[in-house]
User: Fold this.
Amino acid sequence: VRELNHETITDAVVQSFAGTPDARLKEILTSLVTHLHDFAREVRLTEAEWSAGIDFLTRVGHMCNDKRQEFILLSDTLGLSMLVTAMNNPTAKGSTEATVFGPFHVAGAPHYKHGEDVSNGAVGTPCEVSGRVLALDGTPIPDATIEVWQADDDGLYDVQRPDLEQAQARGVLRSGSRGEFHFKSIVPSSYPIPHDGPVGDMLAATNRHPWRPAHLHFMISAPGYKTLVTHVFRSGDRYLESDAVFGVRSSLVADWNVGDDGICRLNYDFVLNSANAE
Amino acid sequence: VRELNHETITDAVVQSFAGTPDARLKEILTSLVTHLHDFAREVRLTEAEWSAGIDFLTRVGHMCNDKRQEFILLSDTLGLSMLVTAMNNPTAKGSTEATVFGPFHVAGAPHYKHGEDVSNGAVGTPCEVSGRVLALDGTPIPDATIEVWQADDDGLYDVQRPDLEQAQARGVLRSGSRGEFHFKSIVPSSYPIPHDGPVGDMLAATNRHPWRPAHLHFMISAPGYKTLVTHVFRSGDRYLESDAVFGVRSSLVADWNVGDDGICRLNYDFVLNSANAE
Assistant:
């Protein structure tokens, strides 16, 4: 019979994965188990703390439904999401930086034509957004798919309003022949991530605030180019230095300016990497 | 604005916990985040793999209810439970070794007198179990609380039978004045841990079997002594070398012997550590 102690058990668990057919799965599980065990030994995790961890993860799981993804919030607030995003989206010089996807994207958002108002009734200060989708060499990318989504003046996305039946402050556009796009929406507001669950409890217990600086989400895709998932952040926001999910990049901070005509405008160009870029 | 990349983000997340009032929580989160990030970098986790991980954990969470604890099964099958048990229950020379608690303990099990049958109708080969509860110096420990629970011949615990209303094959006894106890039950069978959920999928994907060697669970407590959570395993079981949860200790393997009278018997003494022992 194997005589395992709290040191030798790690090798035994790694060995138990020796017959894994998928080499990549085996690599991931081996690394995961090694780090998980190292963590438990490093802090000398007690049985009560282990039990509290089981309870915490169970609460996180029970909080997840088709409108709420608490495990993504946990990954976001522990910086894992941004780490994975940054590692997998190295920025070619001149291309737009990526940032976290977040839990509020919805597939099948309504399509809009240039100039239309994607806010669709969401409450906030009206604004106009324009820009271009470009390749690294400055060539316009026509017919790119541009998905945009954002929070309203209350700091809520439409999916956080259970009584709302239509999509608000989200939509899909196509870039024009010169790569251009423009649409109407509302000025984004800073907002707290949902913090009435276990992730909120974790933030409270660590004296961290749940706020994200105001931003517009974009996902931009076009054949031959690497899909870009990013935000445009609003300059001057008080949370730019302490984003709860570590997503801010200075290159993604832009001004919403009020023009002489009293209209608030954002102009921002997106530069896509080619699909073959590493 | 902070310029974080996939290397520097770890320090930023650790710094975000700087204001945690509870020093122990801060220590645990710092180590957890560091190992979590190191894992993601080490395997160069892709966005699709991250997403698969979020889905897996969400499924684990949704599988948990008042009868099923899939996160404990996950911890068990990754060896974390046994690591934590071993680390927190160093065995003084001569004391009984601890092993995993498992997910099938139920508080408030029925009390039995010596000689009574704790199987309470569970199907299996009848047997008699006896032994003593002792201190390290051999002194008997009277009036110790002895909780016992086990699977039946189908490899199921009572809580895995939704239609069953009474407790079966579990009970609470008190040791007598000479530390002794004896009760009737059934011979335990090897059994697969519940593997119709995501943990079972993980085992299948890694060519691991879900079986545990046959065992009786014991939790023994007495004032002045460290509570002992352990099993007695049945010698000769084919899964002793490959327990799905890494819980076997050779000192915990014992014989269920059929006597000349045709009765199957187990005799096993438990030796408790003093409560002050490290």
